[in-house]
Design brief:
heterodimer; A: alpha+beta; B: about 450 residues; 2 domains; 8-stranded mixed β-sheet; 18 helices; disordered N terminus; cytoplasm (chain A)
Chain lengths: ~130, ~450
């Protein structure tokens, strides 16, 4: 069940191939169905992308957003709370956070001596709340 | 099939074969499993491990049905199924192990009927009751591997805790609306307290805290696409078969073979039909040192769990932010309707329906306008952040002093919507009335219009 960043790249390729196909056939795409996808395109210069999965996406009404980089990981939640009031308590406090498809521990507030993680330009951060139903 | 103590068992292979460890295949098995046995990496030993294994599937719903089909097809020797529910018609679009003719039957009984038709050889054990802190250890103890196919946070924590204490690998999947998650936990299994970063995580290592009660929606409430939950269930079976065939569940398999724990996320997009598939595999960490269940100072015990410590229900029902509005800000559905019919609703009033647009598309109270709750919250947050008039939340052309009524599906979101509108100053300091319709469209169906298509 390993889908690596290579897969991610191939998704983007396949995605643009789709668009290329549509363009080559001179088919216009209504803006309402233009891809607003999890497989986000590269963030603008000086930004990172943040993906909102499941309930996080419902809360923010979007799947992806670009935020200014660099940003210390420990400032991530307050940055999001400024934009989406209530998101910390409703979503972030019980969600997983990944950077570039890898789980990261959220800093606990007090200085535990560990090296400070900084979200860099071009990174992809994801907010993943648990899903419980079945 | 004989029925003992409420369990269905299938004794056609003979007791000797059931109690002892199998070291050869019967001709019927040789034929039945031939196509999977010749796959590179499988072979006779792997098939025998499947035949000798005991798998417990907890939940016979949207995940459990597809998972059970493939577990059954693959020739797992003993398959236990736990579920206390009965089959309903609204289950059938996704719960492929049931049938229209079995609506009303216990799900375990219905699913085993289906599985037995697929493959009569395995030994099926039915547990026609919900998993609980009192029964979980007893039920799980006799199995080699557990599939969590349940539908709520409390049972997910309970099952994971028991699997840690009994050293059982756990394949956990979940799905709602258009999202699915899959993770293999506690595999290879290691005793509680071993933490030097080479042991696999448990559910609590990944999700330390449950979401606030009320924020979690069930498939019944939020909806679920059949292929999404089906995909997750099938993949669950795939992971389970891999673990069993390679013997990773057997004692002594730990050490040296820790696979990188991975959380697979599937996002299915209905809005973006030309988009790419969206699967993401996220690298998870190992066991957490301070994990409540498997960490080094854990005090979790089987006796404790059975006796109610920890209290899973309480842990998963932390106070939510929902309020109850004072009586003067509420009106019942029948009162609203009476005022509507007799023309006593205030002039120029507006009725805001905060259900999602899909619900709204099946019908609404005459004159209602749809402002989905999620959108309302987002607009409210934006107005607070960037300034601007709260009035922008409402459709164009609504007078700034028009009294507002708010209705939702079951009466919770509408109360929160009333509070949000007031926070934005839309009550003009109390001069404009904003009223919640109690109990939402559910109450409307019960009190006013029994034919209303409530979902």
């Amino acid at each position: 069940m390993h889908v690596t960043t290579a897969m991610q790249r191939s998704q983007i390729t396949c995605h643009s191939a789709n668009q290329a196909f549509l363009l080559s056939k001179n088919i216009s795409i209504p803006t309402s169905i233009l891809p607003v996808t999890m497989t986000s395109s590269n963030p603008p210069k000086g930004h990172f992308n943040i993906l909102f999965f499941a309930a996080a996406g419902s809360f923010t009404s979007k799947h992806v957003e670009s935020l200014p980089a660099p940003l210390p990981l420990k400032k991530l939640f307050e940055t999001l709370e400024e934009r989406y009031k209530g998101i910390k308590e409703s979503i972030l406090d019980h969600s997983l956070v990944t950077i570039n498809l890898t789980y990261v521990d959220m800093p606990s507030g007090e200085d535990d001596g560990s090296e400070e993680l900084i979200i860099k330009e071009g990174d992809e951060v994801a907010i993943i709340p648990p899903v419980s139903s079945g | 099939m004989s029925r003992k103590n409420g369990n269905y068992t299938n004794n056609h292979m003979g007791d000797a074969a059931q109690n002892g460890v199998r070291d050869s295949l019967a001709p019927e098995e040789f034929d039945r499993y031939s196509r999977q046995m010749i796959v590179p990496g499988m072979g006779k030993d792997s098939q025998l491990r499947l035949l000798n294994s005991h798998v417990l599937i907890i939940g016979a719903g949207g995940l459990g049905c597809p998972a059970a089909q493939y577990i059954t097809g693959a020739g797992v020797g003993t398959i236990g199924i736990v579920d206390g529910d009965v089959v309903e018609t609204s289950n059938l679009h996704r719960q492929v192990g049931h049938a229209t003719s079995r609506v009303g039957m216990l799900k375990v009984e219905s699913l085993i009927t289906h599985l037995r038709a697929l493959n009569p050889l395995p030994n099926y054990v039915a547990y026609p009751f919900p998993i609980s802190p009192e029964n979980a250890a007893e039920v799980i103890r006799g199995y080699d591997l557990v599939l969590d196919c349940t539908d709520n946070p409390a049972t997910r924590y309970l099952i994971s805790d028991i699997c840690v204490l009994l050293c059982k690998p756990l394949v956990s999947a979940a799905s709602v609306q258009k999202s699915g998650q899959l993770i293999v936990l506690n595999c290879p299994p290691a005793p509680q307290g071993l933490v030097d970063n080479k042991y696999a995580p448990c559910y609590r290592c990944c999700f330390r805290k449950p979401p606030p009660a009320g924020s979690m929606v069930s498939c019944g409430e939020a909806g679920i696409m059949g292929p999404v939950v089906g995909t997750m269930g099938v993949m669950q079976a795939g992971e389970a078969i891999k673990i069993l065939a390679s013997g990773l569940h057997l004692p002594g398999s730990e050490g040296g073979n820790l696979r990188e724990p991975t959380l697979l996320i599937y996002t299915y997009e209905l809005e973006n039909t030309i988009g790419p598939f969206s699967f993401r595999a996220l690298k998870m960490g190992g066991r957490k040192k301070n994990c409540f269940a498997c960490g080094e100072n854990s005090t979790l015990t089987l006796e404790g769990i059975k006796g109610g410590d920890p209290n899973y229900e309480q842990f998963c029902s932390l106070p939510s932010a929902k309020h109850t509005l004072p009586a003067e800000e509420r009106i019942t559905a029948s009162e609203y309707n009476a005022a509507r019919i007799s023309g006593k609703l205030p002039d120029g009033h507006i009725l805001v329906d905060t259900r999602e647009k899909e619900h709204f598309s099946f019908g609404s109270i005459p004159g209602a306008v749809n402002v989905p709750f999620g959108k309302l919250l987002t607009s409210a947050a934006k107005i607070k952040r960037e300034g601007g008039a709260g009035h922008g939340i409402l459709p164009h052309g609504v007078a700034e002093d028009a009294p507002i009524f708010v209705v939702c599906r079951k009466g919770l979101d509408s109360q929160e919507a009333v509070e949000k509108l007031k926070e934005l100053g839309m009550d003009n300091g109390g001069k404009r009335k904003i009223t919640d319709i109690k109990g939402g469209m559910q109450a409307w169906k019960e009190e006013v219009d029994p034919t209303f298509p409530f979902i």
